[in-house]
Protein backbone atom coordinates (compact mmCIF):
# COMPACT_ATOMS: atom_id res chain seq x y z
CA UNK A 1 0.00 0.00 0.00
CA UNK A 2 2.99 2.29 -0.13
CA UNK A 3 3.66 4.51 -3.12
CA UNK A 4 6.38 2.23 -4.43
CA UNK A 5 3.91 -0.65 -4.85
CA UNK A 6 1.08 1.06 -6.74
CA UNK A 7 -1.28 -1.68 -7.83
CA UNK A 8 -1.65 -1.88 -11.62
CA UNK A 9 -5.43 -1.60 -11.33
CA UNK A 10 -5.11 1.55 -9.18
CA UNK A 11 -2.73 2.99 -11.76
CA UNK A 12 -5.45 2.82 -14.43
CA UNK A 13 -8.42 3.64 -12.16
CA UNK A 14 -9.82 7.06 -13.19
CA UNK A 15 -11.36 7.47 -9.71
CA UNK A 16 -8.23 6.43 -7.76
CA UNK A 17 -7.46 9.92 -6.47
CA UNK A 18 -10.84 10.32 -4.71
CA UNK A 19 -9.63 7.93 -2.02
CA UNK A 20 -7.38 10.69 -0.65
CA UNK A 21 -10.45 12.74 0.24
CA UNK A 22 -11.42 10.33 3.03
CA UNK A 23 -10.14 10.49 6.61
CA UNK A 24 -7.67 7.71 7.35
CA UNK A 25 -7.27 6.52 3.77
CA UNK A 26 -3.50 7.01 3.92
CA UNK A 27 -3.05 4.57 6.82
CA UNK A 28 -2.34 0.86 6.32
CA UNK A 29 -5.67 -0.15 7.80
CA UNK A 30 -7.75 -2.23 5.37
CA UNK A 31 -11.38 -1.17 5.49
CA UNK A 32 -13.88 -3.66 4.10
CA UNK A 33 -16.88 -2.25 5.96
CA UNK A 34 -17.70 0.95 4.10
CA UNK A 35 -21.04 -0.71 3.33
CA UNK A 36 -21.83 -0.73 7.06
CA UNK A 37 -20.32 2.61 8.09
CA UNK A 38 -18.70 4.72 5.39
CA UNK A 39 -15.46 6.55 6.15
CA UNK A 40 -15.82 10.28 6.81
CA UNK A 41 -14.84 12.70 4.08
CA UNK A 42 -12.10 15.11 5.21
CA UNK A 43 -14.32 18.11 4.44
CA UNK A 44 -17.03 16.90 6.83
CA UNK A 45 -15.15 17.69 10.07
CA UNK A 46 -14.65 21.38 9.19
CA UNK A 47 -18.22 21.58 7.87
CA UNK A 48 -19.58 20.33 11.21
CA UNK A 49 -17.28 22.66 13.19
CA UNK A 50 -18.38 25.60 11.04
CA UNK A 51 -22.00 24.70 11.63
CA UNK A 52 -21.47 24.76 15.40
CA UNK A 53 -19.71 28.13 15.30
CA UNK A 54 -21.70 29.97 12.68
CA UNK A 55 -25.17 28.48 12.38
CA UNK A 56 -25.92 26.86 15.74
CA UNK A 57 -23.78 29.27 17.77
CA UNK A 58 -24.48 32.33 15.64
CA UNK A 59 -28.05 32.04 14.45
CA UNK A 60 -29.34 30.10 17.47
CA UNK A 61 -33.09 29.45 17.27
CA UNK A 62 -33.42 31.69 14.21
CA UNK A 63 -31.68 28.85 12.30
CA UNK A 64 -34.93 26.86 12.23
CA UNK A 65 -36.77 29.51 10.22
CA UNK A 66 -33.79 30.47 8.13
CA UNK A 67 -32.68 27.04 7.00
CA UNK A 68 -32.96 23.99 9.19
CA UNK A 69 -36.67 23.26 9.00
CA UNK A 70 -36.63 22.71 5.25
CA UNK A 71 -33.28 20.90 5.22
CA UNK A 72 -34.79 17.36 5.22
CA UNK A 73 -36.70 18.08 2.02
CA UNK A 74 -33.82 20.01 0.41
CA UNK A 75 -31.34 17.21 1.03
CA UNK A 76 -34.04 14.73 0.04
CA UNK A 77 -34.33 16.44 -3.35
CA UNK A 78 -30.54 16.41 -3.79
CA UNK A 79 -30.44 12.73 -2.93
CA UNK A 80 -33.32 12.09 -5.31
CA UNK A 81 -31.51 13.83 -8.17
CA UNK A 82 -28.03 12.40 -7.57
CA UNK A 83 -28.66 8.89 -6.27
CA UNK A 84 -32.31 7.78 -6.43
CA UNK A 85 -33.60 8.86 -9.83
CA UNK A 86 -36.41 10.74 -8.11
CA UNK A 87 -37.87 14.08 -9.15
CA UNK A 88 -38.12 16.73 -6.40
CA UNK A 89 -40.80 16.63 -3.73
CA UNK A 90 -40.85 12.87 -3.12
CA UNK A 91 -37.89 12.30 -0.77
CA UNK A 92 -37.21 13.43 2.78
CA UNK A 93 -34.60 12.71 5.45
CA UNK A 94 -35.40 11.73 9.03
CA UNK A 95 -35.79 9.00 11.63
CA UNK A 96 -33.96 5.69 11.26
CA UNK A 97 -34.53 3.21 8.45
CA UNK A 98 -36.35 1.00 10.94
CA UNK A 99 -38.80 3.74 11.93
CA UNK A 100 -39.35 4.74 8.29
CA UNK A 101 -40.02 1.10 7.40
CA UNK A 102 -42.73 1.10 10.05
CA UNK A 103 -44.24 4.36 8.85
CA UNK A 104 -44.28 3.39 5.17
CA UNK A 105 -45.43 -0.20 5.68
CA UNK A 106 -48.33 1.01 7.83
CA UNK A 107 -49.22 3.66 5.26
CA UNK A 108 -49.11 1.05 2.48
CA UNK A 109 -51.27 -1.60 4.13
CA UNK A 110 -53.84 1.06 5.08
CA UNK A 111 -54.01 2.03 1.41
CA UNK A 112 -54.96 -1.54 0.39
CA UNK A 113 -57.99 -2.30 2.58
CA UNK A 114 -59.36 -5.82 2.27
CA UNK A 115 -55.99 -7.26 1.28
CA UNK A 116 -54.56 -9.43 4.01
CA UNK A 117 -50.93 -10.26 3.21
CA UNK A 118 -47.47 -8.69 3.30
CA UNK A 119 -44.94 -10.51 1.08
CA UNK A 120 -41.30 -10.52 2.26
CA UNK A 121 -38.35 -12.89 1.83
CA UNK A 122 -36.75 -14.91 4.61
CA UNK A 123 -33.31 -13.52 3.85
CA UNK A 124 -34.37 -9.89 4.03
CA UNK A 125 -32.57 -7.80 6.66
CA UNK A 126 -33.74 -8.59 10.22
CA UNK A 127 -35.25 -5.17 10.95
CA UNK A 128 -37.38 -5.36 7.78
CA UNK A 129 -38.69 -8.80 8.80
CA UNK A 130 -39.28 -7.80 12.40
CA UNK A 131 -41.13 -4.59 11.52
CA UNK A 132 -43.27 -6.46 8.99
CA UNK A 133 -44.08 -9.12 11.60
CA UNK A 134 -45.06 -6.45 14.12
CA UNK A 135 -47.35 -4.73 11.62
CA UNK A 136 -48.90 -8.04 10.60
CA UNK A 137 -49.72 -8.69 14.25
CA UNK A 138 -50.94 -5.16 14.87
CA UNK A 139 -53.16 -5.02 11.78
CA UNK A 140 -54.32 -8.66 11.68
CA UNK A 141 -52.41 -9.47 8.48
CA UNK A 142 -50.42 -12.51 7.40
CA UNK A 143 -46.77 -12.59 6.32
CA UNK A 144 -46.26 -14.52 3.10
CA UNK A 145 -42.64 -15.64 3.08
CA UNK A 146 -40.48 -16.13 0.00
CA UNK A 147 -37.73 -18.72 0.50
CA UNK A 148 -34.55 -17.74 -1.31
CA UNK A 149 -31.15 -19.18 -2.11
CA UNK A 150 -28.97 -17.43 0.53
CA UNK A 151 -26.19 -16.91 -2.03
CA UNK A 152 -28.68 -15.18 -4.32
CA UNK A 153 -32.07 -13.49 -3.68
CA UNK A 154 -35.61 -12.82 -4.87
CA UNK A 155 -36.15 -13.52 -8.58
CA UNK A 156 -39.12 -12.53 -10.75
CA UNK A 157 -40.36 -16.14 -10.87
CA UNK A 158 -40.21 -16.48 -7.07
CA UNK A 159 -42.20 -13.28 -6.64
CA UNK A 160 -44.73 -14.14 -9.37
CA UNK A 161 -45.57 -17.39 -7.65
CA UNK A 162 -46.11 -15.65 -4.29
CA UNK A 163 -48.16 -12.51 -4.96
CA UNK A 164 -51.88 -12.56 -5.63
CA UNK A 165 -55.18 -10.83 -4.94
CA UNK A 166 -54.55 -10.94 -1.18
CA UNK A 167 -51.20 -9.12 -1.39
CA UNK A 168 -51.31 -5.63 0.06
CA UNK A 169 -47.58 -4.92 0.06
CA UNK A 170 -44.30 -6.43 -1.15
CA UNK A 171 -41.17 -5.53 0.89
CA UNK A 172 -37.82 -6.22 -0.76
CA UNK A 173 -34.16 -5.22 -0.47
CA UNK A 174 -32.58 -3.89 -3.64
CA UNK A 175 -29.19 -5.36 -2.68
CA UNK A 176 -29.28 -8.31 -0.25
CA UNK A 177 -27.26 -7.50 2.86
CA UNK A 178 -25.68 -10.95 2.99
CA UNK A 179 -25.13 -12.15 -0.59
CA UNK A 180 -25.16 -8.75 -2.39
CA UNK A 181 -27.83 -10.12 -4.78
CA UNK A 182 -29.00 -7.18 -6.89
CA UNK A 183 -32.72 -7.55 -7.39
CA UNK A 184 -34.30 -6.75 -10.74
CA UNK A 185 -36.22 -3.85 -9.24
CA UNK A 186 -38.18 -2.75 -12.33
CA UNK A 187 -39.32 -6.32 -13.11
CA UNK A 188 -40.23 -7.09 -9.48
CA UNK A 189 -42.06 -3.78 -9.11
CA UNK A 190 -44.12 -4.58 -12.22
CA UNK A 191 -45.00 -8.02 -10.85
CA UNK A 192 -46.21 -6.52 -7.56
CA UNK A 193 -48.28 -3.96 -9.46
CA UNK A 194 -49.88 -6.58 -11.72
CA UNK A 195 -51.13 -8.22 -8.54
CA UNK A 196 -52.54 -4.88 -7.36
CA UNK A 197 -50.03 -4.57 -4.52
CA UNK A 198 -47.75 -1.71 -3.50
CA UNK A 199 -44.00 -2.24 -3.29
CA UNK A 200 -41.52 -0.90 -0.74
CA UNK A 201 -37.82 -1.10 -1.63
CA UNK A 202 -35.11 -1.05 1.04
CA UNK A 203 -32.13 0.69 -0.60
CA UNK A 204 -29.70 0.54 2.36
CA UNK A 205 -27.09 -1.45 0.45
CA UNK A 206 -27.58 0.18 -2.93
CA UNK A 207 -28.01 3.92 -2.37
CA UNK A 208 -24.69 5.53 -3.31
CA UNK A 209 -23.18 2.46 -4.95
CA UNK A 210 -25.72 1.10 -7.47
CA UNK A 211 -27.71 3.37 -9.80
CA UNK A 212 -31.38 3.59 -8.81
CA UNK A 213 -34.24 4.99 -10.95
CA UNK A 214 -37.25 5.05 -8.64
CA UNK A 215 -39.45 7.24 -10.87
CA UNK A 216 -38.64 5.32 -14.03
CA UNK A 217 -39.19 1.95 -12.35
CA UNK A 218 -42.60 3.03 -11.08
CA UNK A 219 -41.66 2.32 -7.46
CA UNK A 220 -44.24 3.27 -4.84
CA UNK A 221 -42.14 3.54 -1.69
CA UNK A 222 -38.48 3.30 -0.70
CA UNK A 223 -36.29 3.75 2.36
CA UNK A 224 -32.56 3.60 3.02
CA UNK A 225 -29.66 4.44 5.30
CA UNK A 226 -27.32 7.39 4.86
CA UNK A 227 -24.45 6.08 7.00
CA UNK A 228 -23.42 3.29 4.60
CA UNK A 229 -22.48 4.31 1.04
CA UNK A 230 -23.63 7.88 1.74
CA UNK A 231 -21.04 8.46 4.49
CA UNK A 232 -23.38 10.45 6.76
CA UNK A 233 -21.72 9.15 9.96
CA UNK A 234 -22.88 6.81 12.74
CA UNK A 235 -26.63 7.10 13.20
CA UNK A 236 -27.18 9.73 10.52
CA UNK A 237 -30.90 9.87 9.69
CA UNK A 238 -32.44 7.73 6.97
CA UNK A 239 -34.35 8.73 3.83
CA UNK A 240 -37.74 7.84 2.49
CA UNK A 241 -39.30 8.19 -0.94
CA UNK A 242 -43.02 8.25 -1.65
CA UNK A 243 -44.04 8.48 -5.32
CA UNK A 244 -45.89 11.71 -6.04
CA UNK A 245 -49.01 9.84 -7.17
CA UNK A 246 -49.41 8.53 -3.60
CA UNK A 247 -48.64 11.72 -1.71
CA UNK A 248 -52.18 12.94 -1.35
CA UNK A 249 -53.65 9.58 -0.36
CA UNK A 250 -51.12 7.85 1.92
CA UNK A 251 -50.99 8.73 5.60
CA UNK A 252 -48.45 7.54 8.11
CA UNK A 253 -49.07 6.47 11.70
CA UNK A 254 -46.73 8.76 13.68
CA UNK A 255 -48.78 11.93 13.43
CA UNK A 256 -46.36 14.49 14.76
CA UNK A 257 -46.62 18.25 14.66
CA UNK A 258 -43.90 18.76 12.05
CA UNK A 259 -45.78 16.61 9.54
CA UNK A 260 -48.99 18.54 10.06
CA UNK A 261 -50.38 21.21 7.73
CA UNK A 262 -49.26 24.16 9.81
CA UNK A 263 -47.02 23.14 12.70
CA UNK A 264 -46.88 26.58 14.30
CA UNK A 265 -50.62 26.95 14.35
CA UNK A 266 -50.41 24.44 17.22
CA UNK A 267 -54.00 23.53 16.49
CA UNK A 268 -56.33 21.18 18.35
CA UNK A 269 -55.98 18.25 15.94
CA UNK A 270 -53.71 16.74 13.32
CA UNK A 271 -54.19 17.16 9.60
CA UNK A 272 -51.35 15.92 7.35
CA UNK A 273 -49.29 18.40 5.33
CA UNK A 274 -49.55 18.24 1.57
CA UNK A 275 -46.56 16.59 -0.07
CA UNK A 276 -43.65 14.58 1.34
CA UNK A 277 -43.55 16.60 4.59
CA UNK A 278 -46.50 14.53 5.84
CA UNK A 279 -44.00 11.69 6.34
CA UNK A 280 -42.03 13.81 8.84
CA UNK A 281 -42.97 13.32 12.49
CA UNK A 282 -40.74 15.39 14.80
CA UNK A 283 -37.77 17.74 14.87
CA UNK A 284 -35.18 16.86 12.22
CA UNK A 285 -31.66 15.74 13.22
CA UNK A 286 -29.87 18.73 11.67
CA UNK A 287 -26.35 17.93 12.89
CA UNK A 288 -26.76 14.37 11.62
CA UNK A 289 -27.57 15.63 8.13
CA UNK A 290 -24.38 17.65 7.59
CA UNK A 291 -21.84 15.03 6.52
CA UNK A 292 -24.12 13.27 4.04
CA UNK A 293 -24.31 16.49 2.03
CA UNK A 294 -20.58 16.23 1.34
CA UNK A 295 -20.92 12.70 0.00
CA UNK A 296 -23.97 13.56 -2.09
CA UNK A 297 -22.04 16.38 -3.77
CA UNK A 298 -19.02 14.15 -4.29
CA UNK A 299 -21.18 11.48 -5.95
CA UNK A 300 -22.78 14.18 -8.07
CA UNK A 301 -19.41 15.37 -9.34
CA UNK A 302 -18.16 11.82 -10.04
CA UNK A 303 -21.49 10.50 -11.40
CA UNK A 304 -23.25 7.42 -10.04
CA UNK A 305 -22.54 5.38 -13.17
CA UNK A 306 -18.78 5.92 -12.79
CA UNK A 307 -19.13 4.94 -9.11
CA UNK A 308 -20.91 1.75 -10.19
CA UNK A 309 -18.21 0.97 -12.77
CA UNK A 310 -15.53 1.15 -10.10
CA UNK A 311 -17.68 -0.88 -7.74
CA UNK A 312 -17.99 -3.65 -10.33
CA UNK A 313 -14.24 -3.56 -10.97
CA UNK A 314 -13.53 -3.85 -7.22
CA UNK A 315 -15.96 -6.71 -6.57
CA UNK A 316 -14.86 -8.57 -9.73
CA UNK A 317 -11.24 -8.29 -8.63
CA UNK A 318 -12.09 -9.42 -5.09
CA UNK A 319 -13.90 -12.47 -6.50
CA UNK A 320 -11.12 -13.54 -8.87
CA UNK A 321 -8.37 -12.97 -6.32
CA UNK A 322 -10.45 -14.49 -3.50
CA UNK A 323 -11.19 -17.62 -5.49
CA UNK A 324 -7.57 -18.12 -6.52
CA UNK A 325 -6.04 -17.40 -3.09
CA UNK A 326 -8.80 -18.60 -0.73
CA UNK A 327 -10.44 -21.24 -2.92
CA UNK A 328 -7.66 -23.79 -2.26
CA UNK A 329 -8.29 -23.25 1.50
CA UNK A 330 -11.90 -24.38 1.14
CA UNK A 331 -13.51 -20.95 0.84
CA UNK A 332 -16.53 -20.63 -1.46
CA UNK A 333 -18.13 -17.59 -3.05
CA UNK A 334 -21.57 -16.81 -1.57
CA UNK A 335 -22.37 -13.85 -3.84
CA UNK A 336 -23.55 -13.73 -7.46
CA UNK A 337 -20.74 -14.27 -9.95
CA UNK A 338 -22.41 -12.11 -12.56
CA UNK A 339 -21.72 -8.40 -12.03
CA UNK A 340 -25.19 -7.53 -13.31
CA UNK A 341 -26.69 -9.49 -10.38
CA UNK A 342 -24.32 -8.16 -7.70
CA UNK A 343 -24.21 -5.01 -5.56
CA UNK A 344 -21.15 -3.45 -3.92
CA UNK A 345 -19.97 -6.21 -1.58
CA UNK A 346 -18.76 -9.80 -1.81
CA UNK A 347 -19.29 -12.63 0.67
CA UNK A 348 -17.05 -15.67 1.00
CA UNK A 349 -18.08 -18.64 3.12
CA UNK A 350 -15.96 -20.93 5.28
CA UNK A 351 -16.82 -22.54 8.64
CA UNK A 352 -13.98 -20.60 10.35
CA UNK A 353 -14.92 -17.12 9.11
CA UNK A 354 -16.14 -15.91 12.51
CA UNK A 355 -12.69 -16.65 13.98
CA UNK A 356 -10.97 -15.28 10.88
CA UNK A 357 -12.87 -11.99 11.23
CA UNK A 358 -11.88 -11.63 14.89
CA UNK A 359 -8.21 -12.32 14.02
CA UNK A 360 -8.32 -9.80 11.17
CA UNK A 361 -9.77 -7.00 13.32
CA UNK A 362 -6.75 -7.47 15.62
CA UNK A 363 -4.54 -6.77 12.63
CA UNK A 364 -6.41 -3.68 11.41
CA UNK A 365 -8.19 -5.51 8.61
CA UNK A 366 -11.89 -4.75 9.01
CA UNK A 367 -14.38 -6.95 7.16
CA UNK A 368 -17.51 -8.18 8.89
CA UNK A 369 -18.97 -11.54 9.66
CA UNK A 370 -22.47 -12.69 8.74
CA UNK A 371 -23.88 -16.06 9.73
CA UNK A 372 -23.57 -18.76 8.51
CA UNK A 373 -19.82 -18.66 7.94
CA UNK A 374 -19.81 -15.54 5.77
CA UNK A 375 -16.89 -13.11 5.52
CA UNK A 376 -18.39 -9.98 3.99
CA UNK A 377 -16.10 -7.61 2.10
CA UNK A 378 -17.78 -4.24 1.58
CA UNK A 379 -15.86 -2.29 -1.05
CA UNK A 380 -17.01 1.30 -0.87
CA UNK A 381 -16.16 2.46 -4.39
CA UNK A 382 -14.62 5.89 -3.82
CA UNK A 383 -12.68 5.06 -0.65
CA UNK A 384 -11.33 1.57 -1.47
CA UNK A 385 -8.24 0.85 -3.56
CA UNK A 386 -7.34 -2.30 -5.45
CA UNK A 387 -4.13 -2.48 -3.40
CA UNK A 388 -6.27 -2.54 -0.27
CA UNK A 389 -8.28 -5.47 -1.67
CA UNK A 390 -5.11 -7.36 -2.55
CA UNK A 391 -3.48 -6.72 0.82
CA UNK A 392 -6.66 -7.58 2.73
CA UNK A 393 -7.35 -10.84 0.91
CA UNK A 394 -3.73 -11.88 1.46
CA UNK A 395 -4.24 -11.37 5.19
CA UNK A 396 -7.51 -13.35 5.10
CA UNK A 397 -5.52 -16.25 3.66
CA UNK A 398 -2.86 -15.92 6.38
CA UNK A 399 -5.49 -15.82 9.12
CA UNK A 400 -7.28 -18.84 7.70
CA UNK A 401 -4.07 -20.85 7.37
CA UNK A 402 -3.03 -20.15 10.92
CA UNK A 403 -6.48 -21.07 12.29
CA UNK A 404 -7.10 -24.16 10.18
C1 LIG B 1 -28.29 -1.38 7.60
C2 LIG B 1 -29.68 -1.79 7.23
C3 LIG B 1 -30.78 -1.35 7.99
C4 LIG B 1 -30.53 -0.56 9.24
O1 LIG B 1 -31.64 0.02 9.81
P1 LIG B 1 -31.42 1.08 10.99
O2 LIG B 1 -32.77 1.48 11.37
O3 LIG B 1 -30.56 2.18 10.45
O4 LIG B 1 -30.70 0.39 12.10
C5 LIG B 1 -32.05 -1.68 7.54
N1 LIG B 1 -32.23 -2.44 6.42
C6 LIG B 1 -31.18 -2.89 5.70
C7 LIG B 1 -31.40 -3.70 4.47
C8 LIG B 1 -29.89 -2.59 6.10
O5 LIG B 1 -28.85 -3.05 5.40
TrEMBL record:
Pathway(s) of this molecule: Cofactor biosynthesis; NAD(+) biosynthesis; quinolinate from L-kynurenine: step 2/3; Amino-acid degradation; L-kynurenine degradation; L-alanine and anthranilate from L-kynurenine: step 1/1
Catalytic activity entry: 3-hydroxy-L-kynurenine + H2O = 3-hydroxyanthranilate + L-alanine + H(+); L-kynurenine + H2O = anthranilate + L-alanine + H(+)
Pfam families: KYNU_C
EC number of this enzyme: 3.7.1.3
GO molecular function: transaminase activity
Entry superkingdom: Bacteria
Alphabetized InterPro entries for the sequence: Kynureninase, PyrdxlP-dep_Trfase, PyrdxlP-dep_Trfase_major, PyrdxlP-dep_Trfase_small
Keyword vocabulary terms for this entry: Aminotransferase, Hydrolase, Pyridine nucleotide biosynthesis, Pyridoxal phosphate, Transferase
Cofactor: pyridoxal 5'-phosphate
Assembly behavior: Homodimer.
Family: Belongs to the kynureninase family.
Function: Catalyzes the cleavage of L-kynurenine (L-Kyn) and L-3-hydroxykynurenine (L-3OHKyn) into anthranilic acid (AA) and 3-hydroxyanthranilic acid (3-OHAA), respectively.
UniProt name for this protein: Kynureninase
Amino acid sequence: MTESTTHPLDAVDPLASYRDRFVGASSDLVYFDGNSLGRPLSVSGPRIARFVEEEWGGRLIRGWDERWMSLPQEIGDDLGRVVLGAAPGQTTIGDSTTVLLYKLMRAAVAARPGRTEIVIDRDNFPTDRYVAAGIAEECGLTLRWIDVDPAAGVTPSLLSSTVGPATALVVLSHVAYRSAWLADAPALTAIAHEAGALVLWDLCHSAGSVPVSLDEWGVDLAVGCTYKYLNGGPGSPAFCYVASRHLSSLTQPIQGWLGSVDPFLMGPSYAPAAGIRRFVSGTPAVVGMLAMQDMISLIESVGISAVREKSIALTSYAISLGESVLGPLGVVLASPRSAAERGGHVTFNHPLMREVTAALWERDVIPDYRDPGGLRLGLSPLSTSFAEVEHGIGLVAEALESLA
